[in-house]
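The protein record now logged underneath.
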Amino acid sequence: MAQNDLETRHLETLDRDLGRFSQLERAGVALSRGLVAPGVALAFVLLAGLGAMLAFGQTSNTLVVVMAAVIGAYMALNIGANDVANNMGPAVGANALTMSGAIAIAAVFETAGALIAGGDVVGTISRGIIAPESIGTQSIFVWAMMAALLSSALWVNLATWIGAPVSTTHSVVGGVMGAGIAAAGFGAVSWPTMATIAASWVVSPLLGGLIAAGFLWFIKSWIIYRDDKIAAARIWVPVLIGIMAGAFAAYLALKGLSKLIDVSFGSALVLGAVTGLATWLICIPVIRRQSRGLENRNKSLKVLFGIPLVVSAALLSFAHGANDVANAVGPLAAIVQASASGSVTEAVSIPLWVMLIGAFGLSFGLFLFGPKLIRMVGSQITKLNPMRAYCVSLSAALTVIVASWLGLPVSSTHIAVGAIFGVGFFREWDAERRLRATIGAAPERPRLAAEERRRRKLVRRSHVLTIAAAWVVTVPAAAALSAVLFWVLSSIGG
């Protein structure tokens, strides 16, 4: 009997020890899982530096180019983590795409856009903000571009960490401006260019929000609030898909495919009109067939908008990769050009290995760190369904077209987030309007208390304030950080 008790106590002690080991093992696995993403990112950055060393060759400037490639890879990772959420967030928030599906689609189309059509806006990033001839020597120009790249990468990294989608374009612009001022004074900066960029802080989100709210009003008025929703959808959903197809055809011609096809604004509009008309005619029988058997309720309408929403997210990713890859490789391309030729005034050409760093950095950054911002953009600002998310995507394409027509530089981040705000605030206004109409029809119905009405707001005010503050301080913060980094780097580099 005593022997059995001893064996029982021994087994219980062994079970407790094994339980402790199991807890330690689970904690170790959880800790290591959190280190996987930074580890993969570090490996990519080091590979980018190694690739730059092999591609550039052994010269006196090789170390500088390797440093720039490492920083450029770091910036590309941050752009993928922060900026791509604007394209995929609405589709994920509307449950039209899973997180893994969104990441896979975005990775493919971002990379394709960067490699196929990217690079044309690099000149603006590397030379349009400051005059290279005002900088002075080649080494000062290189350190200025290096400081701009590093400061913008650090700022975007901080914004991603606090959950604020910011404009990576404005981050790089601020970095280049700050380094230019530190290197050559205020006269080196193209202030008219900076004024138009500052104007886009207001124009981009306001225009995106108004267009998105306008399309949501149209969908509610002509489809959702109709007695026969399915019959109304058969008429208007093909029209909306045709508008989307036409808008994206013009969008890609203007912003994404200019490297392959030289088209004027008028030609892009004609291309968009033809594409939209053809898509509308094709979609009429498709939507009619897809809507057979659907119940006359709002949930059925979500089915009709699902596939167009996924397609629009993919096209936005392609155009984003084509345009915003310049934010990562613009200063890097300028550094490579200046290091190879010794001149700071020659036109910047983009080697293939530089584009590869930018393209794959976008995809790796999205895959490793993107889900946090995708969730924030897709579901934490306001609740999205396929119709609302469709309005956001359509607004992004149309806003870029309108801004190109007006000659205004705009931020894809500001447009997309502004469109989400527009959808949310329109829903608040529409709900308030319908509530007043209901109370007017039934005076005996009690009014909600002011505190309860604030609680029922459909847009989270805390996110509005955080994002707006991040937008306002992006350029000055990146500029100040860049100026400090330029002084440090130039003093170290001699």
